[in-house]
Amino acid sequence: MESTSPAGVMPTARQNPFDPPEELRRRQGLGPIHRMTYVDGGQGWLVTGLAAARAILADPRFSVLPDHMRSPIAQPASVPVPPGFFLHMDPPEHDHYRRLLTVDFTVRRIKLLEPEIEAIVHDQLNAMELAGGPADLFKAFALPIPSQVIGEGSGCPTPTGRSSSGTPPRS
User: Which end of the chain is more exposed for a tag (fewer CB within 10 A), N or C?
Assistant: First the structure.
């Protein structure tokens, strides 16, 4: 069910920083998909329904390539995607990298890495505390931890210089 109202801009005004904007909630009540206008004047879609969002995310006709993405709100200049960052790849390239990494992240191997994962989390929390507040949780915690865990799990050196987990890399 698509909204038939004219395209609006992405609502961003909030009463509480932890709640979605009231206008977003209002649109959600009108249906799961709405036309919207990007800050550059281009037209796009606002998806507020879970079923519609899941269908779109699973549909191979939609892309995650950065060249195809647009932000509905003003963003700072984009940072180039580093080589091998497979979260910004479409199939079949994404599938190739995922298959290569899947064998390194079985339940058994992750269980073996648990002490190293705990140490990584502990180190990141300590670094955040030492840096003082406020902190950008994404930059200081959510981004470096998975990167370091992937490095440990695949036997690759980590950017922080942590020693390898002792879990031998897959051969």
Answer: C
> Distances in Å between the alpha carbon of 162 and those of 101, 144, 154, 157, 159?
20, 12, 14, 7, 8
User: Helix crossing, 107-131 with 144-154: angle to 10°?
Assistant: 140
Q: Which residues of the chain are modeled with pLDDT < 70?
A: 1-7, 77-79, 84, 157-171
Q: E strands, the chain, where? A: 8-9, 33-37, 43-47
Q: Which residues pair with 36 in a beta bridge?
A: 8, 44
What's the confidence (pLDDT) of residue 43?
Answer: 82
Cα-Cα-Cα-Cα dihedral sign, residues 134, 139, 143, 147:
negative
pTM reported for the whole predicted model: 0.49
